[in-house]
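Task: sequence design from structure.
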């Protein structure tokens, strides 16, 4: 997989507006919290902003790390099974 850009979450904070901008540009969003993965299909059933933000933002109010955008799919948080599929 080719990496086009990397942001250091400690140096460049991504808040509410940045998280929503990324989410609105995606067709599908996979959010991992521990072993649980929630998938949002943005074209079919777009959730409201508060629902999205409750999944995308961490306790500091910034976009959770790691976050990967691959094409029109956004991956937020870490889940080993989901990340195995990213490279495919």
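Answer:
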């Amino acid at each position: 997989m080719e990496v086009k850009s990397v942001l250091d979450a400690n140096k460049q904070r991504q808040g509410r507006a940045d998280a929503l901008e990324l989410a609105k540009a995606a067709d599908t969003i996979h959010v991992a919290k521990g072993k649980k993965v929630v998938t949002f299909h943005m074209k079919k059933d777009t959730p409201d902003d508060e629902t999205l933000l409750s999944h995308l933002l961490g306790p500091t109010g910034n976009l959770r790390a790691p976050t990967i955008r691959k094409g029109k799919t956004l991956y937020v948080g870490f889940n080993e099974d989901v990340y195995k599929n990213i490279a495919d």
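Residues 16-86 form one domain.
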